[in-house]
Write a structure and sequence with these properties.
The protein folds into 2 domains: about 5-245, Nucleotidyltransferase, domain 5 (2-Layer Sandwich); about 255-435, Nucleotidyltransferase, domain 5, CATH 3.30.420.40. It is about 40% helix and about 20% strand. It has helices at about 50-65, 110-125, 135-145, 145-150, 160-165, 195-200, 225-230, 245-250, 305-315, 330-340, 375-400, 420-430, 445-455, 460-470, 480-510, and strands spanning about 5-10, 15-20, 25-35, 40, 45, 75-80, 85-90, 100, 155, 175, 185-190, 195, 210-215, 220, 235-240, 260-265, 270-275, 285-290, 295-305, 350, 365-370, 410-415, 435-440, 470-475. The strands form 7 sheets. A 7-stranded mixed beta sheet has the order 18-19-17-16-22-23-24, sandwiched between helices. The chain has a 6-stranded mixed beta sheet with strand order 3-2-1-6-15-14. The termini are far apart. The relative contact order is 0.13.
Amino acid sequence: MRATTLIGIDIGTQGVKAALFTPDGRCLADAFVKSKLRRRAPGRVEEDPEFQVRSVCRAVNRCMAAARCAPRSVAGMAIAGQMAGLLGVGEDGRHLTPYDSWLDTRCAPYIARMEQCAGAEILRKTGCPPSFNHGPKILWWMHERKSVFNAIRAFVQPGAYAAMRLCGLDAARAFIDRTYLHFSGFADNRRSRWDPALCNRFGLDPAKLPAIVAPNTVVGRLTAAAARRCGLRPGVPLVAGCGDTAASFLACGATAEGVCVDVAGTASVFAATAARFRPDTRRRMLACGQAAVPGLWHAYAYVNGGGMNLEWFRREIAGRPAPGRRTLTFDRLNREAAALPFDADTPLFVPHFAGRVCPSQPGLRGAWAGLRWTHTRAHLYRAMLEAVALEYGIYRNAIAELYPDLRLRDVRVTGGGEKSAVWNRIKAAVLNMPVVQVRQSLGAPMGAALLAGDGLGLFKDLRRTADRWVRTGERHRAGRKMTAFYQPRLRQYEELLTVLATQLARERASDSPSRPSRREAP
């Protein structure tokens, strides 16, 4: 039997998902293993890297069992994963730190430090300002956990760590693919290399940074032990893959200029595809990262935990479910929100529970504004849907300013939130563009599988293959009245953010300046 099927894996915030695909893009089976986020103190969000690796093996094994697929039929696999967090590994390639999640905010003082020392240079070279991403997190480990930092031989992301463990790689073969580089704080992203000047500025030894590879690079082969755990044959090639966001963009068909993507997942991401690297040096809002397709870039921004907010609302705020039902469903909440008239009576919501990332305002927090006694949970919930769309409106305006000649075509929506028709209509109204559901896309696992096939030479052209695999579905449009309603509402939302940010700045100015602690933890 010729090996032709491909496995794509995504180590996401909510869990690990694996999917098995035929060469023409048909999904034979998929499986999911829930993650275990550890929140041991305010602002501290971690995961056990070994649990992530075990979850990858379980998901692949379940996927193979569900498809009833012979192990020898699998040609290769690739892993996508969370992008802005990291972990440190020792000489043997085993983790010395937990996974320091992108949701972890402990590094906030080091965001300020990097911004003050070299913010403009970091943005110009990497394509992204300092935020809750690699640079500030590396500095946190450097200054707050010195003994651990000294033992670290390389900092990697969950996708690379899982690949290293599955293939038995030590720190000398640690890697990062180039779709992550805008989050690094230390890269010359345009040239796909580490920047000595930035490393020197912050006293970082470049030897602690992994090798930079292309997403379709074969990084190793499954060991016999890993193969048994996955239900595969030893020696299956493992391709580097890419960041989960970049993989989701690929799986939506963002393979040409002007195609936009909405990843309606744990984070709410809006992106536009362009052919040039352009850092957002004026607004300092957008990241500009390399696409999985060579020669393309994605200008994008995101709401940290935008989708997580909805789960919090359903669990903690929305109230008890209807009699006879165990949980209150999102379908019910969406129907209630859709039944409301589109008028100014709906309150405004600020979705930044863990701080605003784009632009970096770490101290900003969530809020409803304009509440009345007549408001119901439907009003509160729809305000939460609107908030993500309004943030997207701000991002779209920034993209139009950065790429004035770029014609934005439509928005491809993927992730759990793509099922909400009312949310898609709101987004279409705010963005004044059609919002297109992707009928068959398993998101990042599908993007990873495409890269696996590309890296193994099964496809002649990654862009054309992705276009064949992606099948679009319903197009959501908003009428003129609804579109007109959201233009002044977008301005009101921006004004609210400005007021909150101004108040935050005043409070900080009135307090004594805080300095990052240099004490070693007991």
